[in-house]
Design goal:
Layout: H1 2-7, H2 14-27, E1 31-32, E2 45-48, E3 51-53, E4 67-76, E5 79-88, H3 94-112, H4 120-133, E6 137-138, E7 144-146, E8 153-157, E9 174-177, E10 180-182, E11 188-190, E12 197-199, E13 205-207, E14 210-215, E15 218-221
Antiparallel strand pairs: 1-4, 2-4, 3-12, 4-5, 6-10, 7-8, 7-9, 9-14, 10-13, 11-12, 14-15
Bound molecules: 2-amino-4-trifluoromethylsulfanyl-butyric acid (MF3) and cobalt (II) ion.
Length: 225
Amino acid sequence: MKAVGAMVAPGRTTNELNDVAHQMIVDAGAVPSFLDYRGYPKSICLSVNEEVVHGIPSDRVLVEGDVVGVDIGVYFQGFHIDAAWTFPVGAVSKDVAMLLRVTEEALVAGIAQAVVGKKVGDISAAVEAVANRHRLGVVRELIGHGVGASLHEEPAVPNYGTKGKGPALKAGMTICIEPMFNLGTYKVKTMPDDWTIVASDRKPSAHFEHTVAITESGPVILNAE
Ligand code: MF3
Ligand code: CO
């Protein structure tokens, strides 16, 4: 993620970012989780501007003012981790900078609720509250999830919900918390490539995700040093 983030600049193609990530994952003796997942054709997802998630790397050239969501899954020694970060390409507008800051803030707020004895709804409500404060659209059709031997496991971890509701959080659970917020409408649609999800009004979108372990001593971000 760090290497890809460092490469993000005007003039880069999304294929170049994909290829570097692929090589680093393979060189580490791991497998890109997304490659061939339900027929997905590339190793990571790169979603530009109004693309919310699941953008397919291509010859598209990034330009100043774009944002690119980088979503990376790695399978290593029997387990997956899944993480996403949205990077600005050069200078971005004030609104877009706010979108990135607030979506990251929501991820942090959600992780703070990933505590033994709380419920999934506590995470969901905390994430949603951050979006609401800034009048951002909370994507509903895509959600966080449990992760482990499979990329997607129980429980579902929506970015909206009610405090105190949903499955109990227990020590040993590993979940992906992944707010997806839009500058405009929360509504999304799928592009004709059958993968790329875009904001219906084509306004910019952001996605931040960590894989989090719930432990007796609090949340642990597994995709961090
Ligand atoms: N990171 C995505 C998620 O959390 C998975 C992308 S699946 C792919 O569900 F097939 F698009 F790669
Ligand atoms: Co995920």
